[in-house]
Amino acid sequence: MERRKHYRVNFNGLLHAEEQVLIEDGTRLTPSTLKNLSEGGALVELRDFEDLLTAGKTYQLLLDNGGEVLGVDAIAIRTDGTTIAFQFNDLSTEDKKAIQTKIIRMSMISERIRNESPEDELAVY
What we know:
With 125 residues, the protein is α+β, with helices and mostly antiparallel strands.
């Protein structure tokens, strides 16, 4: 069993904008949704079954990073229908920091959402 090298944050409908990813292959942009993210890569779900991508090929992922666009090169290492696992390729120091920032921000939001209870939302103060 292979162990993961990096911590991952899962995106389960947390923030619509943060989850949007465009995959660029040099000729077209393919819309997809970010499922999880780590310092080593990302798991995305394609929105259209027509846009299947090829494992082993390098793409550019365009990620939302707090309102800024972060473009990183990534290799599609595994495909399973519309789900694709990418490994980041030759990240700059700046890109690594941007990904770490996104992971921290999304971890904080995820934790906050998990800790909220329905009673808290209905409470009157």
